[in-house]
């Protein structure tokens, strides 16, 4: 794939083929050991133009960064919807459902980032995915049993920016590899103070254990600007993972897109999403 370093102007133009953004509320709990309690949480769900409840759609779960909320991608930056509308209208990607949840649970924006992003895997698996894919028309076909969600993993992706990139590794790859086969970590893996060697080991272990169970990686599309504060650690970790794990094959099921001059901002992350949409769910790219 030939990557652009700027989103084409045509992707910001008017189109009559606009998707619909819906608020979605679901039941979950904190899953804290010895002190768990129920919660109602919200997410935004983007439905592609012409959404038809009788047809199945792949689903992208798309996470925000630190200190914000599920409003980030589509409500705080409404041009994200315009970009997605145009990418789909141009036939550049598979029409898909996009879900923007949050890993925060109430007033917890100051809680340890490692804990929050990793602990989200329980809510993701037990509550969010089943609730979304029972309500909307995914390849699960309304059957949200664990066995069926595993069978339909190739129609499910997870991506995120900054702490959402960390959540892509921790919540989706390490703990839920059996539910996702497409990944988009945008800007970082373990943060500036994380154990880089430990992350390399976890990435390799997740892929190798998945392979033993017959679960393959369709694509991991890593992204970062070379002036991004998260660039050095992310590049180091993924370069090592490629060297140490034969299941990551650049150009076949893996790439690391570098934006020259790119920094830790929404311009870069929207560009990452623009490219990720053209990779996810396209089997000829896997």
How does this model look, in words?
The longest helix has 23 residues. The chain is α/β, with parallel strands linked by helices. The radius of gyration is 18 Å and the shape is globular. It has a single domain, classed as Rossmann fold, CATH 3.40.50. The termini are close together. The chain has an 8-stranded mixed beta sheet with strand order 1-2-4-3-5-6-7-8, sandwiched between helices. It is built from 8 helices and 8 strands, in the order βββααβααβαβαβαβα. About 35% of the residues lie in helices and about 20% in strands.
List its traits.
8-stranded mixed β-sheet; globular; 286 residues; Rossmann fold
Which helices and strands appear, and what pairs or packs with what?
Layout: E1 20-29, E2 38-47, E3 59-63, H1 72-76, H2 79-89, E4 97-100, H3 113-135, H4 146-151, E5 156-161, H5 163-176, E6 182-186, H6 196-212, E7 219-225, H7 231-244, E8 254-259, H8 266-279
Parallel strand pairs: 3-4, 3-5, 5-6, 6-7, 7-8
Antiparallel strand pairs: 1-2, 2-4
Helix pairs in contact: 2-8, 3-5, 5-6, 6-7
The run of helices and strands is EEEHHEHHEHEHEHEH
Report the span from N to C terminus. 12 Å
Low-confidence spans: none
**Which architecture would the CATH scheme give at its second level?**
3-Layer(aba) Sandwich
Specify the helix fraction band: 25-40%
**Helical region count?**
8
Give the CATH level 1 class.
Answer: Alpha Beta
Give the total of beta strands.
8
Described by strand count, sense and barrel closure, the largest sheet is: 8 strands, mixed
């Amino acid at each position: 794939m030939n990557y652009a370093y700027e989103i084409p102007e045509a992707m910001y133009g008017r189109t009559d083929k606009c998707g619909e953004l819906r608020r979605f509320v679901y039941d979950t709990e904190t899953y804290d050991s010895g002190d768990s309690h129920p919660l109602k949480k919200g997410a935004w769900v983007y439905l592609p133009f012409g959404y038809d409840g009788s047809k199945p759609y792949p689903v992208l779960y798309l996470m925000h960064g630190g200190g914000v909320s599920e409003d980030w991608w589509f409500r705080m930056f409404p041009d994200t919807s315009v970009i997605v509308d145009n990418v789909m209208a141009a036939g550049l990607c598979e029409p898909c459902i996009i879900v923007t949840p949050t890993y925060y649970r109430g007033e917890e924006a100051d809680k340890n980032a490692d804990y929050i992003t990793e602990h989200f895997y329980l809510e993701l698996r037990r509550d969010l995915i089943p609730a979304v894919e029972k309500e909307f028309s995914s390849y699960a076909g309304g059957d949200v049993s664990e066995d069926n969600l595993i069978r339909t993993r190739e129609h499910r992706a997870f991506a995120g920016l900054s702490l959402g990139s960390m959540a892509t590794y921790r919540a989706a790859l390490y703990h839920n590899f059996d539910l996702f086969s497409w990944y988009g970590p945008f800007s970082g893996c373990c943060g500036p103070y994380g154990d880089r060697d430990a992350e390399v080991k976890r990435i390799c272990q997740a892929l190798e254990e998945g392979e033993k169970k017959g679960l393959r990686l369709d694509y991991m599309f890593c992204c970062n600007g070379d002036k991004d504060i998260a660039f050095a650690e992310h590049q180091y970790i993924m370069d090592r993972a490629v060297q140490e794990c034969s299941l990551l094959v650049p150009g076949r099921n893996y790439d690391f897109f570098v934006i020259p001059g790119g920094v830790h901002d929404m311009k870069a992350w929207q560009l990452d999403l623009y490219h990720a949409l053209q990779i996810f769910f396209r089997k000829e790219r896997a």
